Amino acid sequence: MKRLLSLGLLVFCCLAQSGVQVAGQQPATPAPPKPLPKGVMQQKLESCQKLLEALSLNDLPKAADCAQDLIILSQKAEWKVVATPRYKELSNEFRAAAEQVVNQSKAKNADGAALGYLDISMLCFKCHKHMREVRMASR
Ligand code: HEC
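That is the input. Now the predicted structure with heme C docked in place:
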């Protein structure tokens, strides 16, 4: 079950991302915003998958650790790919959602932590959608 969930998320994330890639590969696209280094991207996906696994197993201490990793990643310089106000806003919301997971996990509130996780996943998609819009606008 947990394998299936992780796999589902992986496919989900890959699909979301392939949309971003396709938009970036249109022939007439001018220089796209500088891509996020592979390391940070890979770690973001991994921490998110580990977080889902931890929450699925009700391992709240591990969930808090994974969410903390996401906060740290979101503070790295490499995270700031475009300078739009919306990108900054979404990054702040992402951090707030990850903080919710940390706090609720520490308070042993599994439901609260799960809700924070849902917010995090929505923000993955919202931000990637924003990136597609930024690309469209720069044509
Ligand atoms: C605030 C914005 C933002 C949020 C939130 C965000 N991402 Fe991203 N993500 C990006 C940007 C920017 C890129 C690079 C896109 C590009 O340049 O084409 C990216 C790329 C990726 C990639 C592609 C990696 C590769 O090798 O090409 C993956 C996977 C990814 N994100 C996963 C996630 C996951 C999982 C989440 C949620 C836990 C998430 N992202 C949340 C901005 C964000």
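The mean pLDDT is 84.
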